[in-house]
């Protein structure tokens, strides 16, 4: 019999993501100022709210400041648990969404046998958080998300469409490393990880920050295969 902990082993050593966390600690509330319009994110969370029974548990993976997703879900009566690599973002999320529970942690901490066991969730959101990983870690992270979901659980994912891997870019006065896929490859990776894609939408977005380039944002609404 296979061992889930081995199948979802993120490797030793894990990639050093200290620089990513420090960048977002420094960016803080300026992130929301740089991305003031989040129609795709709001719509995806509304889909979850309309699809889930009252009291459902939702994990916001890469919760940032808690704006808008954590607050939107909490206001609808959803039990919100957020995780972010950045201590500064977690502190802001706790202030912005007092009804939620937020942890400073890496996605690798949530795998079977990891240091943080949060139980299972009716849905998971990952809005622009997976693009902070090297491509080599994204399929494994998607399998970890599948593990965190109940059978038939829902998954709302967004990525920026770009054919890049662990590529350094300027971002709101800091430097971060990002990865992305063209949409057909993204769909293939998500489906291979054990998800049914229910719907796909995309938005052309021009951030308010001068050093952030316009981008195409892809949103996938998914369901975990039982």
Describe the structure.
The chain has 226 residues and is an alpha/beta fold. It is 31% helix and 29% strand. It is built from eight helices and nine strands. The protein has helices at 4-7, 18-27, 30-34, 39-51, 69-75, 87-96, 138-148, 183-192; strands at 57-61, 79-84, 101-104, 121-127, 149-160, 167-171, 174-178, 195-205, 215-224. A seven-stranded mixed beta sheet has the order 3-2-1-4-5-9-8, sandwiched between helices. A two-stranded antiparallel sheet has the order 6-7. The longest helix has 13 residues, at 39-51. The radius of gyration is 16 Å and the shape is globular. The two termini are 18 Å apart.
Element layout with pairings:
Layout (H helix, E strand, L loop, with lengths): L3 H4 L10 H10 L2 H5 L4 H13 L5 E5 L7 H7 L3 E6 L2 H10 L4 E4 L16 E7 L10 H11 E12 L6 E5 L2 E5 L4 H10 L2 E11 L9 E10 L2
Parallel strand pairs: 1-2, 1-4, 2-3, 4-5
Antiparallel strand pairs: 5-9, 6-7, 8-9
Number of strands: 9
Question: Which structural category do the helix and sheet elements fall into?
Answer: alpha/beta
Whole-number radius of gyration?
16 Å
Mean pLDDT across the residues is: 87
Terminal residue distance: 18 Å
Largest sheet: 7 strands, mixed
Q: What overall form do the CA principal axes indicate?
A: globular
Helix fraction by DSSP (H/I, runs of at least 4): 25-40%
Low-pLDDT residue intervals, each spanning 5 or more residues: none
Percent of residues in beta strands = 25-35%
Order of helices and strands: HHHHEHEHEEHEEEHEE
Number of helices: 8
Strand arrangement, largest sheet?
3-2-1-4-5-9-8
